[in-house]
Design a protein that fits this description.
heterodimer, A: 596 residues, alpha/beta, Rossmann fold, 3 domains, flat, B: 168 residues, TBP-like, 8 strands
Chain lengths: 596, 168
């Protein structure tokens, strides 16, 4: 009997592929920012300047005649740049995908080449045993079909690469000169305008989500480029889209205002630029930080960016991780003296919590710092009603939490964390508006607000209200504990000449101490190994530090690992003496939270 | 005055006192620059050894001034350190053991199963591996904290966060 064995062919070399889709995407983002800048110029020349009231009569007519074409040209440039940006961004996405497929092809080729070499070795000399020959024949046939499949995948890959390159080249070819731009895009209606007109009135995030989902891809891209302030700050729009829009706004502020000589900036421009730089610092801090489990860099998501909000204090929210898809999401609310300039420092808190969550076993987490309310800071700290800002902030926070829930169609775990005055704000959001948070964490709390007599009042069950208070944290001792209110005493002592920030937290009454047994929350261990021996302010700001009890416990809460949370004894306030904190006598521990 | 009133008063005074910030003299900025030069110099030495040990070049090297301790009243950092981080992608099976051997003069200690700590005067370095990042080895080099508050370091020309740095 004759057995014919065909040795499999060697697989073709995988071509070298060095294109970096991420870099191409960055170029697309820059183009989109440029489109947005041209759009602003077009809108200004075509409308806002005319409506400013500076010009009237003949001068207005002359202005319109002279500048209308400039405005139209700027609009045309904006549309051309947007088309180019969309093409480049799409090409970037495709290159990222092609890169993954290329890596797979390289791996397959290496494996197949080794297999072919081994089969050649087995066939030289040919085995004399018929059974062995049959096995060799069958192995050769299997390998041949695998090589064939590899060659077919390689052809598809090459064709897809060529198609992607051709697509982006064609999109760019159409708008090479100013004349071409005006011919193709001059006077063309911006699809963003119709999309904006169809936006639901009011701020119901579910309606906004439905509206966004109903837009075409082109309309969404147009809205992002033409109205980044709207897309970037409207609850209900998915986080990735908001981040794209806010990236445009931030990059535009940095580029435009950074190019101006410092002494030529107006006060508003100076404020905007300073706040943009603070947001940029936060973005960089997140980008350079590393997941302690995978070793990969984090990708920041800019969920809100409004540098002129709250009379220039600014608003910004940025996430470490993907808010659209993470199984566990936390919103971290800072407290007194926080404004946008503190973005970098707050980003560090979000990074630390994300790293600790990963280290404690969380595999899908997004932690977001949220400077989205007007916290008492700077001049605000003087003469402002103590709880008013927390009440107003609570409403904004509730909108944010509702927005996160509306933009997601899946079930995810949401934790609201408030530090210091931010804990009063979180508490107000929960008691006054009942947003859909699963867990609440109150850190170094000066009080849970007027409307919360007990943890149950937060509306999520007392077992989901967690409290971290270092026993020597001065601010954590300010909440009411039942018999005599330090707030009431403080108010008497501190109003008048002292006033201001001090009276706000120390004397104005921010509600019940949530660490007390009467309140009924779950208190977790939050002592620090560098704890002071008497009540002090430094122990008020260690909750997010790595290798602390509080960070480890917060990571467990964010991960939903409730059994891992290490409980602490609650503060007790007997009628015959000052409150007793059992944590004061415990030796603090230092759990590892980042693997170092 | 009761103990509780004392707490309230102390909180008020500390917030008022800690809210202010003193002037920073040129010596502080000189210290920040000196630390940057020292850390960068040592990081280059370590990188050079690691490059040979791990048969890999450093990637994504960045430099930053990072906050260390916060100011209790403002929750913003009041001290900073200069640090450098980079990563190596290696096929070395036990990279920390190999690095420990080759960097023995810097008193290597395994602080956890995946982090090797080194010291050089006031400076500290870590090499770290990652449970789900096969082949990745992170390098971190840092100096001690220098007291300078949030606003003043941000107004300083030398302030950097996540800027690329050349370790060659």
């Amino acid at each position: 009997m004759t057995i014919t064995i065909s040795l499999p062919p060697k697989p073709s070399e995988t071509p070298e592929f060095t294109a970096d889709g991420q870099k191409v995407r960055e170029a697309g983002t820059t183009l989109r920012t440029s489109s947005s800048i041209f759009d602003d110029h077009g809108s200004f020349a075509g409308g806002k300047a005319k409506e400013s009231g500076l010009l009237d009569g003949r001068s207005a007519a002359a202005y319109a005649q002279a500048l209308s074409p400039v405005g139209k040209h700027a609009d045309a440039c904006s549309l051309a740049l947007r088309a180019a940006a969309n093409a480049v961004l799409g090409h970037g996405d495709e290159l990222v995908d092609l890169r993954k497929r290329h890596q797979q092809l390289e791996g397959d080729r290496e494996h197949l080449a080794r297999q072919v070499d081994a089969l050649i070795a087995r066939a030289n000399p040919l085995p004399t045993d018929e059974a062995e020959l049959q096995i060799l024949k069958s192995d050769c046939e299997r390998c041949s079909s695998q090589v064939e499949a590899y060659e077919s995948d390689l052809v598809s890959w090459t064709e897809d690469l060529e198609a992607s390159e051709e697509k982006v080249a064609a999109a760019l070819r159409d708008a090479m000169t100013e004349q071409q731009v005006d011919q193709k895009y001059g006077g063309v209606a911006d699809p963003a305008d119709a999309a904006r007109d169809s936006m639901p009135s009011g701020n119901d995030p579910k309606s906004v989500k439905a509206w966004w989902d109903g837009l075409t891809e082109e309309q969404r891209a147009a809205m992002t480029a033409a109205y980044p302030e709207i897309v970037g700050n409207t609850d209900g729009i998915p986080a990735a889209a908001r981040s794209d829009a806010n990236t445009i706004s931030l990059d535009r502020d940095l580029a435009e205002l950074g190019a101006m000589p410092e002494d030529q900036r107006t006060d508003d421009e100076r404020t905007r630029y300073d706040n943009a730089r603070a947001a940029e610092e936060a973005r960089r801090r997140i980008s350079k930080s590393i997941d302690p489990i995978t070793g990969e860099n984090y990708v920041p998501q800019i969920y809100a960016y409004d540098p002129m909000a709250f009379d220039g204090d600014g608003a910004v929210a940025m996430a470490v991780g993907d808010l659209d898809t993470a199984d566990n999401v936390s919103v971290n609310v800072p407290g007194l003296t926080t404004d946008m300039e503190a973005a970098g420092d707050n980003a560090q808190n979000a990074i630390n919590l994300q790293q600790a969550a990963a280290f404690e076993g969380g595999t899908s987490t997004a932690t977001m710092f949220w400077i989205g309310y007007d916290a008492p800071s700077g001049a605000d700290s003087v003469g402002v009603a103590a709880e008013g800002m927390a009440t107003a902030g609570g409403e904004r926070l509730a909108d944010t939490l509702d927005g996160l829930n509306a933009m997601r169609s899946d079930d995810f775990h949401l934790t609201a964390i408030g530090h210091s005055y931010g804990s009063t704000t979180v508490s107000h959001a929960m008691t006054d508006h009942h947003p859909g948070a699963d867990d609440v964490v109150l850190l170094g709390s000066p009080g849970a607000g007027d409307d919360a007599d007990s943890a149950d009042d937060l509306g999520i069950g007392s077992g989901h209200v967690f409290v971290g208070t270092n026993s020597e944290d001065l601010v954590g001792r300010l909440g009411q504990t039942g018999w005599v209110s330090p707030a009431a005493i403080g108010a008497g002592v501190l109003t008048g000449p002292l006033g201001g920030a001090a009276a706000q937290m120390a004397g104005a009454g921010l509600g019940h101490n949530p660490a007390e047994d009467d309140f009924g929350a779950v208190r977790f261990q939050a002592e620090s190994t560098s704890r002071g021996s008497i009540p002090n302010i430094d122990d008020h700001v260690k909750y997010y530090d790595h290798d602390t009890e509080s960070l480890a416990n917060m990571a467990h809460i964010v991960n939903g690992q409730y059994d891992e949370v290490v409980r602490a004894g609650q503060v007790h306030d007997p009628w015959y003496r000052d409150p007793v904190d059992p944590e004061t006598d415990r030796t603090p521990t230092s759990p590892n939270t980042d693997g170092r | 005055m009761t103990a509780r009133a004392s707490v309230a008063m102390a909180a008020a005074l500390m917030i008022l006192v800690a809210g202010g910030c003193g002037a920073v003299n040129d010596e502080t900025y000189a210290k920040l620059e000196r630390q940057r030069d020292d850390v960068l110099g040592w990081a280059r030495d370590l990188s050079s050894v690691a490059e040979a040990t791990l048969a890999a070049s450093p990637e994504d090297a960045t430099q930053s001034y990072d906050g260390v301790a916060r100011s209790g009243a403002s929750d913003r950092f009041k001290s900073y350190k200069y640090d450098i981080q980079a990563r190596f992608i290696t096929e070395q099976q036990d990279p920390l053991a190999a690095l420990s051997d080759d960097l023995a003069s810097y008193d290597p200690t395994l602080t956890t199963s995946n982090a090797l700590r080194l010291s050089h005067g006031e400076l500290t370095a870590f090499f770290q591996t990652y449970p789900k990042g096969p082949g990745r080895v992170g390098m971190f080099v840092e100096g001690p904290a220098i007291e300078i508050d949030h606003d003043q370091i941000r107004d300083w020309d030398g302030f950097v966060v996540g800027e690329p740095v050349d370790l060659q």
